[in-house]
Design goal:
The complex is a heterotrimer of chains A (243), B (232) and C (210).
Chain A (H helix, E strand, L loop, with lengths): L1 H8 L1 H33 L13 H28 L2 H33 L7 H22 L3 H33 L14 H33 L4 H7 L1
Chain B lengths: L9 H18 L1 H21 L4 H24 L1 H9 L1 H6 L5 H30 L7 H25 L6 H9 L4 H15 L5 H29 L3
Helix pairs in contact in B: 1-6, 2-3, 2-6, 3-6, 3-7, 3-9, 6-7, 6-10, 7-8, 7-9, 7-10, 9-10
Chain C lengths: L4 E10 L2 E11 L4 E5 L6 H8 L9 E4 L2 E2 H10 L1 E4 L11 H11 L6 H10 L15 H14 L4 E5 L7 H16 L3 E5 L10 E5 L6
Parallel strand pairs in C: 3-8, 3-9, 6-7, 7-8
Antiparallel strand pairs in C: 1-2, 1-4, 4-5
Helix pairs in contact in C: 3-4, 3-5, 4-5
Classes of the chains: A mainly alpha (243), B mainly alpha (232), C alpha/beta (210).
């Protein structure tokens, strides 16, 4: 068991294995996202209340889900790095951070665009959007802290610790924002909470969520491979790749 | 000379650290005035920036007081470990044969005693300036006393993470402020509830729960952060 | 009972460059070890690694045969580390500074002992002056007073001779050798030429990297 972890933790092994999986994952992502988009945009029924504008959901929800899972994954990678000092874990965390921040941005932007037909304004202090905004700041903090350190190892360890602190705080933040929201705007209409979504609506959503995940995994593999090359550029096995 | 196998006296070490930090702070009294002065100044700005109408001010007073107090504690956090880092005594603190989490807790306690508590005590006075409804003054002070302790603990994590960085203070705000939002929500929520004659117990209980959680977890995070960042 | 700090296969990487690697080092009673090498060769990093301040990137550290990870409290109880900065609080006077360090190590210490230690280092008359008003050399002497005040087996000293005048240097050198002769150990870096009065081990870092 430990052998497997450490072997997978070796950048070289990861580089080779990820290189083999990479094309398949990209293909899977393209297939899922393609199918999902066509299904969601052309075949899913329009919402009886919101009309076609509800279709933003097919981008908003996957982005929001991914933004949250990225933070958790980043924390897991950070913990692995802090405890076992497996450098690969930190490379993955480094790569995930900007992607997670971007997904948070997409979720915020799509939510805000969605707000125009729904609420008649670009921004409403809706519980979900507010939590998202705070999460964006958390991402930015982690990225900024990593960049502020002169030594890569110091920055990596500091960012890992901050991510762990953040991941403990996220549920508390969510809970308190929900509490604050109900206190100030009782029973407002929230974007994605609906009693029951018919299968024709949520099936394409599920495909889109899976597609986003496939895209995320493929991109992370690709970007981690280039991060490996960047960091291990002076090691012999990397130099041999080029010859 | 014989090898020492055990170290006695976490108690004396904690006491000495408390006393040392208090002495240092009291000898540099000028710095102690800054957070309360900042707090008062920011509160003065709001009527000038918004409107002097008492009803209007009263409606937003709980939030204003809490945000201003939060920023005032934030202001003083950067100094929490920085001077110790510069003169090298922070390095020595990390090398003491004592649990670091306990020692940093002592430092945070002194910080609260000298910034959080004074802010909580002067807040009712500033509440008066903002026409805060009577009956909510006690809750304001209590919520700030509780909440500022949590703010200090959370902020100390950020201060510890940025202590080795030359220009850490702006970054410190970016790291810490998002984490303080739950404290702000329940703190100002308690005061709002009091101002509207509602039940303050749930919000105060939540502040207490946050403090308990912070007391349990933050010292370890602060200690870990110091070990990471002190060597840049 | 004896003591031993044993390092095997230590390495220090900075920005993809090995400052040193596969470094073995053992320190026991009577040893004086001087770490040598040009600026930037990792002398301070090595001392910090040996003092358990930096995470090990490779190799292992043992204190009396037990991994330092587990023996940390026992190790720290026997260590006195003086870094680049003397660790003296400017707002406090010499006596207060020393008293805090003693308390930190679980000792109460006596006022008289502190006065005596300061007097040995030529600080008589400056005991109650805030350290901010003292010179860099005097501040360092306060830190050095800890060597006599709190007897520790292992001294790790990073450039201890910095900012100290000639008499102070001679006295400190005496103290180092006496400490070794009494069964202690010293690990240090210095640009100052030590007059060997016993076995001096040299560790050269200039060729230890890549």
């Amino acid at each position: 068991m430990w052998d497997v972890v450490h072997r997978l933790g070796s950048p070289r092994t990861f580089y080779t294995i990820a290189g083999r999986w990479q094309p398949w994952l990209w293909a899977l992502a393209a297939l899922l996202l393609g199918t999902g988009s066509v299904w969601a945009l052309l075949f899913a029924p329009a919402d009886y209340q919101q009309g076609d504008s509800f279709r933003i959901l097919y981008v908003h929800v996957p982005a929001a889900i991914l933004a949250q899972s990225c933070f958790v994954l980043m924390a897991v990678a950070g913990a692995i790095f802090l405890v076992w000092r497996i450098k690969l874990a930190d490379m993955v965390a480094t790569v995930i951070a900007p992607f997670g921040a971007a997904m948070t941005g997409v979720a915020l932007f799509s939510g805000s665009v969605w707000g125009v037909p729904t609420w008649g304004t670009w921004w409403v202090w809706d519980a979900r959007l507010t939590s998202m905004l705070i999460q964006l700041f958390l991402y930015l903090g982690v990225i900024a802290l990593r960049g502020a350190f002169a030594s890569r190892d110091g920055g990596a360890r500091a960012a890992s610790l901050l991510t762990l602190v953040g991941v403990i705080n996220i549920p508390i933040i969510k809970y308190s924002v929900d509490w604050w929201n109900t206190l100030h705007q009782p029973a407002t209409f929230t974007l994605t909470q609906r009693p029951a979504m018919p299968a024709e609506m949520w099936l394409p959503l599920a495909v889109m969520v899976l597609g986003f995940y496939a895209y995320f995994v493929a991109l992370t593999l690709t970007r981690t491979r280039s991060e490996i090359l960047r960091r291990e550029g002076r090691k012999r096995w990397v130099l041999e790749l080029g010859s | 000379m014989q090898p020492r196998t055990s170290v006695a006296g976490l108690g004396p070490a904690l006491l000495a650290t408390l006393r040392r930090d208090l002495t240092v702070a009291l000898r540099r009294r000028g710095d102690l005035v800054n957070p309360p002065a900042f707090f008062a100044l920011v509160i003065t700005l709001f009527p000038l920036g918004i409107s002097p109408v008492p009803e209007q001010l009263a409606a937003i007073a709980p939030g204003l007081l809490w945000v201003a107090a939060l920023l005032a504690t934030q202001l003083s956090l950067d100094a929490l470990f920085r001077s110790d880092h510069e003169d090298g005594s922070l390095e020595q603190l990390l090398l003491a044969p004592q649990p670091l989490a306990a020692l940093v807790l002592a430092k945070v306690a002194v910080h609260w005693l000298l910034t959080g508590l004074p802010l909580a005590l002067m807040a009712p006075l500033l509440g008066l300036l903002l026409s805060l409804p009577s009956g909510s003054y006690g809750v304001l002070a209590a919520s700030l006393a509780l909440g500022s302790a949590t703010l200090g603990l959370i902020g100390a994590i950020g201060a510890a993470l940025t202590v080795g960085l030359a220009r850490g203070s702006v970054l410190l705000s970016l790291l810490v402020l998002p984490l303080t939002i739950p404290v702000l929500i329940f703190g100002s929520g308690a005061v709002q509830a009091a101002a509207m004659g509602g039940d303050v117990a749930p919000a105060l209980a939540m502040l207490g729960a946050q403090l308990a959680l912070a007391l349990m977890l933050a010292p370890w995070a602060i200690a870990g952060a110091l070990r990471i960042s002190i060597h840049g | 009972m004896t003591f031993r700090l044993e390092a095997r296969g230590l390495a220090c990487e900075r920005d993809d460059r090995w400052l040193f690697r596969d470094l073995d080092l053992g320190v026991g009673p009577g040893d004086v070890v001087r770490i040598e090498g040009p600026n930037g060769s990792g002398k301070t990093s090595l001392l910090k690694l040996l003092a358990g301040q930096l995470p090990l990137q490779a190799g292992e550290l043992h204190w009396n045969g037990v991994s330092l990870r587990r023996a940390r409290p026992a190790f720290l109880a026997n260590l006195l580390y003086l870094g680049h900065a003397p660790g003296i609080k400017p707002a406090l006077n010499a006596l207060e500074n020393l008293a805090w360090y003693q308390a930190l190590h679980g000792e109460s210490g006596s006022h008289r002992a502190r006065l005596a230690a300061l007097e040995v280092l030529g600080l008589a008359g400056f005991e109650e002056v805030p350290a901010a008003q003292l010179s860099a050399g005097q501040q360092r002497r306060i830190a050095l007073a800890r060597l006599t005040l709190s007897p520790r087996l292992l001294w790790i000293l990073d450039e201890p001779f910095t900012a100290i005048d000639r008499q102070g240097v001679a006295a400190l050198e005496d103290a180092l050798w006496n400490h070794a002769a009494a069964g202690g150990a010293v690990l240090l870096t210095t640009h100052h030429e030590l007059h060997a009065r016993g076995a001096l081990t040299r560790v050269d870092l200039s060729k230890a990297g890549d």
